[in-house]
Amino acid sequence: MHKELGLGFGTALVIFLLVSGYNIGPLVLLGAAAAAFYYFVRVKGVVKNFIVNDGNEEHRISFADVGGQATAIKELREALDFIKHHHYAKRLGIRPLKGLLLTGPPGTGKTLLARAAASYTDAVFVAASGSEFVEMYAGVGAQRVRQLFRTAREKARQTGKSNAIIFIDEIDVLGSRRGRVTSHLEYDQTLNQLLVEMDGIKADDAVHLLVVAATNRADLLDPALLRPGRFDRQVRVELPDREGRLEILRLHTRNKPLAADVDLAAVARETFGFSGAHLESLANEAAILAMREGTQEIHHRHFVEAAEKVLLGDRLDRRPAREELWRIAVHETGHALLSELTQPGSVTALTITPRGSTLGYLRQKSEDDNYLYTEEQLSDRLSVLLAGAVAEEIVLGSRSTGATNDFEQAVGVAETMVRAGMSELGVVALDDLPDDVWHQALSRLLKREEERVKAYLQPRKDLVIQIAQQLLLEERLSGEVFRSVLEAGCRTLA
Hints:
Layout: H1 2-20, H2 25-43, E1 51-53, H3 70-84, H4 86-91, E2 99-103, H5 110-120, E3 124-129, H6 140-158, E4 163-169, H7 171-174, H8 186-199, E5 208-215, H9 223-226, E6 231-236, H10 242-252, H11 264-269, H12 276-293, H13 300-312, H14 322-342, E7 347-351, E8 361-364, H15 375-396, H16 404-419, H17 435-457, H18 461-474, E9 476-478, H19 479-493
Parallel strand pairs: 2-5, 2-6, 3-4, 4-5
Antiparallel strand pairs: 1-3, 7-8, 7-9
């Protein structure tokens, strides 16, 4: 309404001045300058329309919708109870928490937890990203921080709520250590304003504010943010374990028709290292595969195919020449044989179908999620990684560049062993270790495992060829088929 009145008045004034014979050129320039200023300030500058959720929508996110994060949910609930029952907390003299920092790998559900926290406390939810506060204009970031807190309080009063949660995603962009950017102080001013706003949160405010932030790089944050009285609690949101993955899969398949052969427990066991986002994508890709086939239900084979697609990417149209396919089959057979030797029953699938940047792939499963590894387990891991190149050398007489990624991973495992005192050097101070000694220690570990692999594969050259021929023929062998071919080959060669 005000815009229409202003536009009408301005038009009438211009017509009046033209009729009266005045030179309106300066006024036009002044109007253009004002319009440009309005554009940069209102549209590109200070004013920002933050995402606001008043909690009244039909489908609210609750803690029951967040799977695989029981520990994080427990810690969050304990902290949120100070806000939910603030009168009781005030009577006990408890200072309300001002900030909660959610840290952990990407895709683990930090944003979902923040939204669930808003539902749990019946709070207005105002969301922003750290990048929204970074601008080239001096003072804009600080003004947006003030606007963010003002918006949260105003929306809470408008909806009649006494609680409001401000969620800042990727806060490491906004709250990184001061002094890192020397070109100008815009970053520091923005962070200083956030500190001031958090210090201004009082227990007796009409609207109880809580700042929830998320990052996967907590090491970059300014220490002033992490001190008590600002971000009082840090909640780790880790990758889910096997039970957590099963819970997440159940959540993401509850609206999908599953066939009787689907074993979600087996899928959870074979997806070690998957985040919640990966598992959601896995369930979605399985449904897409079922739709492409025209089936009415999602079968277990769809989940198997979807897991490979999420890990490696879709199948590629390009197809290597038969000589290259034969080398790839020999390479992957070497990996598979050492995997079965070190951990019987560990091979889930073996394929030479190109996907993403890989020409072949061995999928392994683990009976349990491991967070600590023994020297024997790491040695076995090294053997499996080196077995592909060794198999090529034994069967084909030479190695190829296909083992490059294997070697990179093998060096990483060897470095872990040296750091853990599992090399001939024993416990060492890495900072004081000369580069040549470090290199020699890695080389000896890798050479030792390479000799071990050769000692196993050399007498079984014919077995490697037999399995590789079967793999070349079918292009993909499941774990069960691989083990049956392995047993048949062992009987034939005995």
